[in-house]
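Hello,

Following up on my earlier ticket. Below are the two sequence lines again, exactly as submitted.
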Amino acid sequence: MRNSFKVAKWELKRNIKNKSFIISLFLTPILFIVFATVPTLLENSDEQESVHVYIKDELNSWSEMEKVLAALEVEWDVNMTTEPEAELLERLQEQENTAYIALTEAALEEGKIQVYLSENVEDTFTYQLNGLEEPLRQLQLQKLGLSTEEIEVLTKGVIFEEVPLTEAEETAMGDPEGITAGAEEQLKRIVPGATAGIILFSVVITGMMIFQSASQEKKEKVAEIVLSSLTPEELMNGKIIGYFGLGMVQVFVWMLFAIPIITWFFEFPLFSYLVVPELLLLLFISFAGYLLFAAIFVGLGATVEDMNATSNFQAMVMMLPFLPAIIIGPVLSNPSGLIAQIGSYFPLTSPAILLFRLSVLEEWPWVEIIISLVLLVSSIWLFMKLAGKIFKTGILMYGKNATPQEIWKWIRQ
Amino acid sequence: MSGEIVLSVNQLGKSFKEKKIIENISFDVNKGEIMAILGPNGAGKSTTIRNIMGIMYPDEGSVTFHHYKAGTIPRHKIGYLPEERGLYKSVSIMDILLYFAELKDYPVAKAKQRALAYLAKFGLEGKEKTSIEELSKGMGQKVQFIAAIIHEPELLILDEPFSGLDPVSQEVFKQEIKDLANKGTAILLSSHQMNLVEELCDRLYMIHQGSKVLSGTLAEVKKDYANFKCSIHGDNETALLEKIPDVQRIEQNGKQSILYLSVEVDIPQWLKQWPDGIQVEELSIDRTTLHEIFIEIATGKRTKEGVRHA
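Thanks for your patience. The regenerated structure is below:
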């Protein structure tokens, strides 16, 4: 094991010093931030100038409506007018991005406010107009002589709200914050689940670099000199540990970017949702997922010398970590359904599907979790054994890529 | 020779599928001795070395390092330069040397000191931060050689150490190998360059098609296998040359004839026994060289049965 840690340290040091790794390490979160913010910025930069709006306010209510629009962050260039309608409409035809709203007694009684639009008025203007609906309705009700309380009751309307049984019990037992507590519980699953998911993603991506590392060791013909100091198993395990460390470094750097943004910018109490006992199981699943794929990649890497001449077989194996994407749709719509259960039992999809399900399910299906973990851990053991056999022979085979038949022969040896 | 056995190879055998690659390979390497393992391509030299290094596992026989049996051999006491050479391309020379020293449990500070000293000795002074991809092939080989000896091994195994080296670098390597042996390192090397083997090695072990064909000290081998050969320049029929006694084999190329003589031949007496009519424009009599013995074995002109062992 000491030798494995020496290899792990070397792989970690070698990659951390590698310029392309450093660039990708910092570029990934920066790209993420860019992709998250640039579309919004571009959207804002594309915004046309404020709509010029002529208001004919026979109701003397514009000042109230203006407050409502301000609360909705709607910015119009408003001009109050008393001009005759025909003249205004004539002017409207000559202008662009201009609207005319006639707030008249007749229109209010009829419940239909006429809005005239010139050319090139954005569609968003129509949505912004909806903001005036509530103050106008209040005005209608005032005209009917209703009291302020009556108006409030009427404008509040009636809504239907689904309440889960557990929360209903809590509420019935006198928990006045039942609904808030439910949402908090949900966050205590989602936040650790998402964190474990990010860790799984990161370590599996760096795990894919093991493939390259093993293949490079063959190509650069350095394996034999290394193997004169340690066993193939120690070399293989060292690579697996080293690239795990590299993945964790990546996660750490990403966290350095993400935590301040989430905690201070979005004012979200990340740590109170993250540091929960469930996190341990979720982390175990993501680490197990890494070990499974790392075993596959290290074994496969030892069969490939020329990356450009990899067969379809090897390329297909590289796609295995993305297998859960195929079933994520049905799992999303029914996290307790049959496909979700099968996905949890099948080792290659198990880590990602389990993490997703445990993040969304209120009650954890412990029997399913235990069966899944037993299958996952057994698969890791089996894949490690197979990878060891392939690695031992493959890493010393120079000159060509191994065929599936040769790999099968090494496994049977 | 001190006589202290460092490496002992006993009845080593290895097969791939049904084919025997090496069979009954047995030899010792003593402290401070340079031992050569020779043979044509595919003879089984690298397989023998890989089995000694524990990179392959022998089907038969045993390898002992001092009193350690296979599986318990302290690898950090052995240095190895494989035939298939390579180093991590994008890493600096010093980083690589320190990594290999660390794998051999050698103290980092001492390794750094030795690395700098050897780089200077091999003309690579000031290049410790240079990456391998920036070096020429010969320079890369020097770094590999340093990597093999950085940890002061008790046994040094060099598989074709001179291949691809220019004559100047060959001299540097040769001198370093001699120095290491003088300091007590047991050295096992394989090589095709017989002139270098003759200059360097104390003993040799030649294998062909996986089995031993000859072994012994250089003097023993020369005495037992380096028969006389007589080169004649003249217009002579083969039939006439065959009448000369004690001739084992004749090679003819135009007017040039080489007669390979039997071991026991007494040259002055033998010359007196020549038949009449042999035309001699030029004549020379020499011992066959190690190179010629090697060629004869490699081309099957001298078989295992036709060779007496020292």
